[in-house]
Write a structure and sequence with these properties.
Strand order of the largest sheet: 2-3-1-4-8
CATH architecture of one domain: 3-Layer(aba) Sandwich
Strand content: 5-15%
CATH class of one domain: Alpha Beta
Number of strands: 8
CATH topology of one domain: Rossmann fold
CATH superfamily of one domain: P-loop containing nucleotide triphosphate hydrolases
Shape: globular
Helix content: 40-55%
Largest sheet: 5 strands, parallel
Distance between the termini: 29 Å
Radius of gyration: 17 Å
Structural class: alpha/beta
Bound molecules: adenosine-5'-diphosphate
Length: about 230
């Protein structure tokens, strides 16, 4: 299954992506995480992308696209993938169309996580991420770790992302509305049924259930129930 998860910062894309990907046994590919790995390793690419990320701006397309091309070429994407944070503008959507066309494959669904701007700022201010595994995301109030500052899953150190300050979050939101929201129209124009908008509000498990239902994989197995 080939899925896209689109939504503003703070919608919970990463949180849901990890769970959906595990449920579907497909790799979770987050361009943000790929960039942060480069920053941690101090690579040249990491230094370049760091300037854009810290400012809350998109990393230039050439860089992003090259990184994604490389990632999608790995064999683990054969059964499918869940893309989190790509495409983030129309040029990237066109690029993904090209990659899929070249391999004769297509997207199965685009999930659009919807959340009011006012909610985003509070969520991001309280977000804490594990240094050892960035899929381990907590919130000081809504999803606190058992011990403050320590990842409940693996014991790693929790930290606040540099681009999670209020001013930067507002810039990221503006970028989302201007550049990323039109990506949904790109897919709606192509195929009306491809995009499902889900509310990102409510407990993590509830949002996950909405996502699974949207792709026809609800947790309740109804396959054995006869329809007649
Ligand atoms: P969030 O969804 O909370 O904004 P991400 O980790 O997905 O967090 O992205 C953080 C930052 O990484 C973005 O603000 C941007 O600078 C950069 N980034 C991630 N994905 C892309 C992309 N596809 N194109 C350009 N920049 C990206």
């Amino acid at each position: 299954m080939r899925l896209l998860l689109i939504g503003p910062p703070g919608a919970g894309k990463g949180t849901q992506a990890v769970r959906l990907a595990a449920h579907l046994s497909i790799p979770h590919i987050s361009t943000g995480d790929l960039f942060r790995e480069h920053m941690d390793r101090g690579t040249e690419l990491g230094q370049l992308v760091g300037t854009h990320m810290r400012a809350g701006l998109l990393v230039p397309d050439e860089v992003t696209i090259e990184l994604l091309d490389e990632r999608l070429a790995r064999p683990d994407t054969e059964p499918g993938f869940l893309l989190d944070g790509f495409p983030r503008n129309r040029a990237q959507a066109n690029e993904l169309d090209g990659i899929l066309a070249a391999s004769g494959s297509r997207l199965d669904a685009v999930l659009d996580l919807e959340i009011p701007d006012a909610e985003v700022v509070g969520r991001i201010a309280g977000r804490r991420v594990c240094r050892q595994d960035r899929g381990h995301v907590f919130h000081v109030e809504h999803n606190p770790p058992r011990v403050a500052g320590t990842c409940t899953i693996c014991g790693g150190e929790l930290y606040q992302r540099e681009d999670d300050s209020e001013a930067t979050v507002r810039r990221r939101l503006a970028v989302h509305h201007r550049e990323t929201a039109p990506v949904l129209d790109h897919y709606r124009d192509r195929d009306r049924g491809l995009v499902t908008t889900l509310s990102a509000l409510g407990p993590v498990e509830e949002v996950l259930a909405r996502g699974l239902a949207a792709i026809g994989r609800s947790r309740v197995d109804v396959s054995g129930i006869a329809s007649h």
